[in-house]
Automatic annotation (TrEMBL):
UniProt protein name: Peptidylprolyl isomerase
Organism of this sequence: Paracoccus limosus
A GO CC annotation given for this chain: plasma membrane
GO terms of molecular function: peptidyl-prolyl cis-trans isomerase activity
Pfam families: Rotamase_2, SurA_N_3
Keywords: Cell membrane, Chaperone, Isomerase, Membrane, Transmembrane, Transmembrane helix
Length: 644
């Protein structure tokens, strides 16, 4: 009985262990985990989800240049994106199975043998490498080949679903006409000089009320009072000794910078034959073409054929011809290692011949700074030990060589030259340090070192009116000027609109019955005087949507294309400036020509891609809804926990 009782207890404990492990997604004792979901009988394994999540993270890192932690990946929704991709793929696979869509072994074999990941050093498919790559990815060959087969089937199904999706021609034409429409406008900037009366001087009560009503403009930001010590190579520059032989060695190592022969800035255009090069040179001499056009005819840009700074020796056989030019011009045809070529010489660079004596001052500064950096590096360990041993920043400042300083840090002020706040390492540390943090020695990119301590945090505070009165007065004046300019602009806009309306003469007044009886003629009625249009300003013809006007904010151009009819005006406020824009004429888009056709093709492609994406989303959702999709959240959480 005791033996049977013990056996029963053991089995109960084992059962409880299995149930407990099941809560973490464990289905067996070999380390496998349960599927994370299924669509229409197509299962999504935990391994698939782990690989998809890893790929999603790698893709995100490639796009942003930053590796993400598991918490950041979850915050960015990368786990949901990976899971969504798997469910879409499973849904398409289930639909392909239902319809009997598949591909043969030949197509799968071609996919495998053409993959670069499975090729050996000879560039051919390597069977051993294929097995090794799959093993490292935790995949069986049969599983991988099944996935390849289903990828092809999914692509067939996707192509069939989207084959008939094209951009509607009316929508394309509408977008093309909207995009290529041009306009003629007049624009005028309104300034204080246009106001009928100068801006009045505000009294104290007005300024105090403005100060209170716009407190956010006169509130000092949070200020962090910081004590620091620092040491830069420049501080030690005059204290280190530099050996003259070391300077001469440095000069010799940099001799290529101090001794350079005459150079030319050259572009080279190679031709297939000598005759073609001579014909091109003749066309250039006659002014029938340009060097840039010749390059364009061969599918090249000037940057493609730019040789940069070259010496006579570097040009080889063409050196004599190019260096015979005493001013920018075309040389050749001359031979090159690629064939006959024309050379465009754009600038002459005089030879450089800097002696050691001339270079010595700069070399001495460079060597001194380098030695100072090494000296700082050698002292960093001892200084860190002193800080760890309880030395205060004040103690370090008294001992030297570190210099003691104080700064009121807001994070918004621009650092002046020679300020410690100019270092990004200091700004980063100053923004996050707390009063509980101990000073720590930090090295900057240029070899400087510093340590800092937070003494006090002053919260945002409204600056007293007496201290900022001048700023308040200037702010009020700017705001009042803008307000009056906007009002003036609206008046001018109304006058512009009124001047553009057609003048309608009133009906003649009826004569009295007595006048009619004696045959009196009707009295002539004067026509109303047309409204006088305000000055329009500067003209701009053929303005394209998204175009540019020199010295004018882009919002002026954008608002000019919002005006409904010619003759109307619009007041535009942009970058604290006020403009009056008048529409003169609307020109229909020129939809013929190669450039317009390229734009049309681009619009069609973008519209078609957008529509295909929408149709595919609807199709994928419908397939999942029809097949039935389930998610095992416990298994999903288990994979996410393992990724931690």
């Amino acid at each position: 009985m005791r033996g049977k009782g013990k056996q029963t207890i053991v089995w109960l404990l084992m059962g409880m262990l299995v149930l407990g492990l099941g809560g973490f997604g464990v289905s067996n004792f070999s380390g496998g985990t349960a599927d994370v979901g299924q669509v229409g009988g197509v299962e999504i394994s935990s391994q698939d989800y782990a690989r998809a999540l890893r790929a999603q993270k790698q893709e995100f890192a490639a796009q942003t240049g930053k590796q993400v932690s598991p918490a950041e990946a979850k915050a960015f929704g990368l786990d949901q994106a990976a899971l969504s991709r798997l469910f879409v793929a499973a849904g398409l696979e289930a639909e392909a199975n239902r319809l009997g869509v598949s591909v043969g072994d030949k197509a799968v074999a071609e996919q495998i043998t053409s993959a670069s990941a499975f090729k050996g050093l000879d560039g051919k498919f390597d069977r051993a490498r294929y097995a090794d790559v799959l093993k490292r990815e935790g995949m069986r060959e049969a599983e991988f080949e099944h996935d390849l087969r289903m990828d092809e089937a999914r692509m067939i199904l996707q192509s069939a679903a989207l084959a008939g999706v094209t951009a509607p021609a009316p929508v394309t034409d509408l977008a093309l006409n909207w995009l290529l429409e041009t306009r003629d406008i007049h624009w005028r900037e309104l300034t204080a000089a246009d106001l009928p009366d100068p801006i009045a001087t505000p009294d104290e009560a007005t300024l105090e009320a403005w100060h209170k009503a716009n407190a956010d403009r006169f509130t000092a930001p949070e200020t962090r009072k910081i004590t620091y010590v620092w040491l830069t190579p420049e501080m030690l520059e005059d204290k280190v000794q530099v050996d003259e032989q070391a300077l001469r060695d440095l000069y010799q190592s940099r001799i290529a910078d101090y001794q350079q022969p005459e150079r030319r800035m050259v572009e080279r255009l190679v031709f297939p034959t000598q005759a073609a090069a001579e014909a091109a040179k003749a066309a250039l001499d006659k002014g029938e073409t340009s060097f840039e056009k010749l390059a364009g005819e061969r599918g090249l840009s000037l940057s493609d054929i730019d040789l940069g700074e070259v010496t006579k020796a570097q040009l080889g056989a063409a050196g004599d011809a190019v260096f015979a030019l005493d001013q920018p011009g075309i040389a050749g045809p001359a031979n090159s290692n690629l064939g006959p070529a024309l050379y465009s010489m754009n600038a002459i660079l005089d030879p450089v011949n800097t002696s050691f004596e001339e270079a010595e001052p700069d070399l001495r500064v460079e060597a001194a700074l380098d030695r100072a950096r090494r000296q700082i590096e050698s002292e960093t360990g001892d200084l860190s030990d002193q800080i760890a041993g309880g030395a205060t920043l004040e103690d370090l400042g008294k001992q030297g060589p570190l210099q003691l300083g104080h700064i009121d840090w807001t994070g918004k002020d621009e650092a002046g030259p020679g300020s410690i706040a100019a270092y990004p390492e200091f700004r980063a540390q100053a923004s996050k340090i707390t009063d509980k943090d101990f000073p720590e020695l930090i090295t900057t990119e240029d070899g400087s070192i510093f340590a800092l301590r937070l003494d006090q945090v002053v919260p945002p505070t409204l600056e007293p009116f007496e201290q900022v009165r001048a700023r308040v007065a200037e702010d009020w004046s700017q705001n009042e000027t803008k307000r009056q300019l906007l009002a003036l602009g609206e008046d001018l806009k109304m006058a512009t609109d009124a001047a553009s309306e057609p003048v309608v003469s009133p009906l003649p007044a009826a004569t009295t019955p007595v006048a009619q009886a004696v045959g009196a003629a009707e009295a002539p009625q004067p026509a109303p005087a047309p409204a006088e249009a305000p000055a329009k300003g500067k003209p701009e013809t053929g303005l394209a949507r998204g175009g540019f006007i020199q010295g004018v904010p882009q919002a002026v151009v954008a608002d000019a294309f919002e005006i409904k009819k010619p003759g109307s005006g619009e007041v535009v406020e942009a970058e604290n400036r006020v403009f009056l824009v008048t529409l003169d004429q609307i020109h229909a888009a020129q939809t013929s020509g190669s450039e317009a056709e390229q734009i049309r093709d681009g619009i069609q492609n973008r519209l078609a891609d957008s529509m295909r994406q929408d149709v595919f989303d609807y199709f994928a959702r419908a397939v999942q809804a029809q097949a039935g999709a389930t998610v095992n959240q416990t298994a999903v959480d288990a994979v996410n926990a393992q990724a931690q």
